[in-house]
């Protein structure tokens, strides 16, 4: 599959369309992801914020990351499906959860990040590029 992508939460109250291609895909083992993914990693595709259009009203929760940036997680208030995450340092990007994108989307993780936080039983594909923590930013903010 290529763009545009479509998506929906488990209950259908939230739908989305993504007009552009991903800037990169990641499997993330950070502790916050393990909390929202029931103990496993999250799987995410980074898109330009302007390419992601959501229909329906999202609920949000925010954390302060070790970097001092605020991470905001948007999810369906009715069924709890995680839709995307966003960092206050990178508002031009939205990190969309694979699970909310309609199949067959053809996306798969290109790298594994925050491996330092992964539990000892985690099985990590040795073919994927690895980062112990945060990887380089896939797309710098446009200069103004
Ligand atoms: Zn829902
Ligand atoms: Zn994470």
Question: What string, H for helix and E for strand, traces the elements in order?
Answer: EEEHEEEEEEEE
Intertermini distance: 33 Å
For the record, the CATH class is Mainly Beta
What's the count of strands? Answer: 11
Low-confidence stretches: none
Q: How many H/I helices?
A: 1
Ligand inventory: zinc ion
Helix content: under 10%
- Strand arrangement in the largest pleated sheet: 6-7-8-9-4-3-10-11
Shape: globular
Rg over CA atoms: 15 Å
Most strands sheet: 8 strands, mixed
What's the domain count? 1
For this structure, the CATH topology is: Metal Binding Protein, Guanine Nucleotide Exchange Factor, Chain A
Beta-strand percent range: 35-45%
The overall average pLDDT, rounded, is: 94
How does the helix and strand content classify structurally?
mainly beta
Second rung of CATH, namely the architecture:
Beta Complex
Multimeric state: single chain
Question: Explain this structure to me?
Answer:
The chain is mainly β and 144 residues long. The protein has a single domain, classed as Metal Binding Protein, Guanine Nucleotide Exchange Factor, Chain A. The chain contains one helix and eleven strands. It has one helix at residues 31-36; strands at residues 5-8, 15-18, 24-28, 42-48, 52-55, 59-64, 70-75, 82-87, 93-97, 111-113, 129-130. The termini are far apart. The model has no long low-confidence stretch (mean pLDDT 94). Residues 28, 30, 32-33, 42, 114 line the site of one zinc ion.
């Amino acid at each position: 599959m290529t763009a545009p992508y479509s998506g929906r939460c488990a209950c259908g109250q939230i739908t989305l369309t993504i007009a552009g291609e991903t800037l990169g895909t990641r499997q993330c083992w950070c502790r916050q992801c393990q909390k929202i993914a029931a103990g496993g990693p999250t799987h995410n595709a980074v898109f330009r914020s302007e390419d992601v259009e959501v229909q329906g009203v999202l609920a949000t929760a925010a954390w302060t990351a070790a970097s001092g940036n605020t991470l905001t997680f948007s999810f369906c208030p009715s069924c709890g499906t995680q839709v995307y995450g966003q960092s206050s340092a990178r508002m031009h990007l939205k990190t969309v959860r694979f699970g909310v994108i309609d199949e067959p989307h053809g996306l798969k993780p290109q790298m594994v990040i925050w491996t330092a936080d992964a539990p000892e039983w985690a099985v990590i594909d040795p073919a994927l590029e690895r980062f112990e923590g945060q990887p380089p930013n896939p797309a710098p903010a446009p200069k103004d």
